[in-house]
Amino acid sequence: MRLLLFIFSFLCVLPVFGQEVDIVDLETQQPIKDVEVFNMDKSSSAVSGGNGSVDITNFAKNSRFVFNHTSYQPYVISYENLRDNGFLVKLVPSTVNLDEVVVSANRWEQDQAEVPNKIRVIGQREIEFASPQTAADLLSETGEVFVQKSQQGGGSPMIRGFAANSVLLVFDGIRMNNPIFRQGNLQNVILIDPNAVESAEVIYGPGSVIYGSDALGGVMDFHTKEVKFSNNDKLRIKGDVLLRAASANSEKTGGFSLNIAGRKFGSFTNFSYSNFGDLIQGSKGNDYLKRSFYVVSGEKGDDVVKNNPNENRQVYSGYSQLNLLQKFRYKVNDKLELGYEFLYTNSSDIPRYDRLIQIKKGKPKYAEWYYGPQKWMINALKIKLGNVLPIFDEMKTTIAYQDYEESRNDRKFQSTKLRQRTEKVNGFNLNVDFVKNLGDRFQLFYGVEGLTNTIKSEGIAKNIETDEETPVESRYPNGDNKYLSGAAYADLKFHFAKAFTFNAGVRYTYTHLESSFGDISYNKTIPFDQVPEYYNMEVNNGALNGSFGLAYNPSKSLNLHFNVGSGFRAPNLDDISKVFDSGDGIIVVPNPNLKPEYAYSTNLGGVLKLNERFRLNADVFYTYLTDAIVRKPFTIGGKTHVPYDGDLGVVHALQNVGHAKVYGTSAGFSWDLARFLNVYSNATYTKGEDLDGNPLRHVSPFFGVTGFNVQFNKFRWNLNYMYNGEISNSNLAPSEIDKPYLYAKDANGKPYSPAWGILNTKISYQLKENLRAIFGVDNILDYRYKSYSSGISAPGRNFMLTVRANF
Question: Residue 10: exposed, middle, or buried by beta-carbon count in 10 A (0-12, 13-18, 19+)?
Fold first, then answer.
């Protein structure tokens, strides 16, 4: 009898033996880590791992379970109901919280409330609901980052008056900025596949203490989805399939992700392909944006100008892109973890739309102007090590090899010469980062960084009639080009009182640049006989940066932060050695005498949570830039005009010109009017000028977004209004005034950037447990507009449909 009772008791507990609960986001169905789980009587507790699972084997089964996470609404459920739900918990996101975890501030996870910088976190739920076409659109749709586009296959983020090579792009802890990142607007952010991004963080203000050169205006740190281990002996297989289409550019996107993992070894794969047709702009307002003509290229240079039957179709703006991400992760033991990451992205030719609309002497200036395929490959080895030595508690090492290629191809109207200039960049990156707890109140972050790049630049002219190729001036010197950098940093966090957290950091960076011309027989622009020092150029620089800040958290309802820091940007190959035609009759020539530019910035802001439903945030900032690098008139060998590509142009060069200042404010709120209704708004104002009082090129207009969300269990609806203010002619930078073809004309016939506002909506619905659809309409009123400094108009009324299936 006792034996039978024992067997019966065993069978009763068998179903819950080793029982795990899977915790996922209600909307995205993605696992949630760091969820605190406990009984109502607090007798047992546990925290979910990276795969969103938690073991409740040792929990008492006769009480209620509480699931708690700072970014989600608390959830309480009985054991019986939990069992009936298949031990699956779906948490509802919270719109009001102060306790997000950030990585970008010092490369280690920490509470955002303890960081003295303003950091905008873009989580996976927000990314999947936005369903952006590119990573540039992902940033833009937040309403807190301004994005310029010279072509559809582009997107140049502007942060607090800085852009291009003055803001830093980071991909999975690896810096993307390389020595050919230019001052002009950059499209490199679109190389990041938004469908592979798990979260992104935007640091506002200098980030040079942790990230080194280029982080003057801020840092955009993208984190892709990670391998998620299994919590038991079963193989964990999870994935999703994505299909997306849009009307304004006939977008067709497809992709999938697949996670296969055991307890210690796993693989994650993400693939996507997108095809974008010609972009159709709006039909109402701003007639100056109409595309009245386009050029049909002839095989022998017999190009023909055609009238555009649909003046809102921006002919020759389409492109395609392929993305592949592969990760492996191996947990050797509790102290050591190894990872390998492979990234490959490749685009088709990308037409440079703003050059295709230029007119010279009543005719199109160019018959063709396009970027060749942008190819970017990363191979990275990552090592995580626990406290095996007393000098650190944890160590992370990343060794990465990057292979990057881009080209520029242009042919003037009715010319047979197609000029092709190609750049190839190869480089190694090394980052070793440590964290050490020094008692209960001190935490030290420190590390070293090294990088090396080699750059090859070549130029050829191809006769499209005979296919004959001849060498021409390359964009950069066609000899040996090298860029090296080494740095060390330390950052200390000190809890000197219950509510106060003090941060202070310092970094020293050394940079070395070599650049030389090879064959100069066909270079007519630089008079080497008069300036022989330009043949071989060498530049060495060192920079010491520091920052200190204070975070004040007297309660969970209030966070105040103050920060003072310095940033720098060492001149790169594009600054020192470039030779190119700016497109407006100006020829930019090398200047080996450039020095680094420095930014000294301060920021004061805070977040106030009046109750569980209302959150208010505001920041004010000021940046003082010394030895600012700007393009100004120049002479080379005593010449003020030089020949380039058959034309005589005015000589300009990048130069250090004293100082500049940028200041402004940003503010916003989020308010849960009801459990299902949230209203929000964010706005940013920036002002900047140089030593002579001239407006700075990358200062965005006043911009922002206001909207609301309606959320039920399976249904979410968003309606928002995005807007940009006007930039009058008197507030346009001189370099922008020189591009009248990009702008409207004011009452005095002078170029200016008009204000605009658009209405957008999105609806998400969970069709089945693992099937979700998102439908949206952007620019509902079909307004014709383009963002400041952009060469291509934004989409008109755009219908979008995304379908995502999880398995």
Answer: exposed
Average pLDDT, the chain: 91
Judged by average pLDDT, the poorest of 65-79, 290-304, 411-425, 561-575 is: 65-79
Q: Are 355 and 334 in contact (CB under 8 A)?
A: no
pTM for this prediction: 0.90
Amino acid at 447: G
Model confidence pLDDT, tens digit, residues 755-793? 999 999 999 999 998 999 999 999 999 999 999 999 999
* Nearest residue to 166 (alpha-carbon basis) of 697, 583, 652: 697
Q: What is the 3-state secondary structure (H, E, C) of 65-98?
A: EEEEECCEEEEEEEHHHHHHCCCEEEECECCCCC
pLDDT tens, residue by residue, 278-288: 999 999 999 99
In angstroms, the CA 276 to CA 245 distance is 10
pLDDT, tens digit, for every residue of 68-125? Answer: 887 787 888 888 888 888 889 988 777 555 557 888 888 888 888 889 999 999 999 9
Burial of 233 (0-12, 13-18, 19+ CB in 10 A): exposed
8 Å CB contact between 216 and 628: no
Structure confidence at residue 4 (pLDDT): 44
| Phi (first) and psi of residue 153, to 5 degrees | -80, 60
**d(C-alpha 654, C-alpha 594), whole Å:** 8
Amino acid of residue 150: S
DSSP-derived secondary structure for 394-446: EEEEEEEEEEEEEEEEEEETT-SEEEEEEEEEEEEEEEEEEEEEETTTEEEEE
Q: Which amino acid is it at 192? A: I
How far apart CA 652 and CA 575 sit, in angstroms, is: 12
Spatial distance between the Cα atoms of 554 and 448, rounded to a whole number of angstroms: 35
Say yes or no to pLDDT of 683 above 60.
yes
Residue 739 near residue 358, CB atoms below 8 Å: no
- Both tokens of 307, joined, read 């009238």
